[in-house]
């Protein structure tokens, strides 16, 4: 056998150990890819990363860094949102 190890495990595929940080990185990429796909673009921008991280509760608590070019997360307070039909005046 030239160049290979011969043994009882030589034909089996070994499962590579993946660290928690690598899994978190893959999850961020997946969520950012979903955000870019929703906006129908092919590139992941810092804005997509920001939306992915801040949209996930666990990642938001894990990653507290400021992302350059990420913008802000849209939020409108509940008291500022009017009820449907509340803006129309009543006919007398």
From TrEMBL:
SMART domains for the chain: H2A (SM00414)
Gene Ontology MF: a single term: structural constituent of chromatin
Ranges of residues in domain Histone H2A C-terminal: 57-89
InterPro entries hit by this protein: Histone-fold, Histone_H2A, Histone_H2A_C
Pfam families referenced in this protein's UniProt entry, alphabetically: Histone_H2A_C
Record-level GO cellular component terms: nucleosome; nucleus
Key words, A-Z: Chromosome, DNA-binding, Nucleosome core, Nucleus
Location relative to the cell: Chromosome; Nucleus
PANTHER family given in the database record: HISTONE H2A
Name assigned to this protein: Histone H2A
Organism: Dendroctonus ponderosae (Mountain pine beetle)
């Amino acid at each position: 056998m030239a160049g290979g190890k011969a043994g009882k495990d030589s034909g089996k595929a070994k499962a590579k150990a993946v660290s928690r940080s690598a899994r978190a990185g893959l999850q961020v990429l997946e969520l950012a890819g979903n955000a870019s796909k929703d906006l129908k673009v092919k590139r992941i921008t810092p804005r997509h990363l920001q939306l992915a991280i801040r949209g996930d509760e666990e990642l938001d608590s894990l990653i507290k860094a400021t992302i350059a070019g990420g913008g802000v997360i849209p939020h409108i307070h509940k008291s500022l949102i009017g009820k449907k039909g509340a803006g129309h005046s009543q006919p007398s």
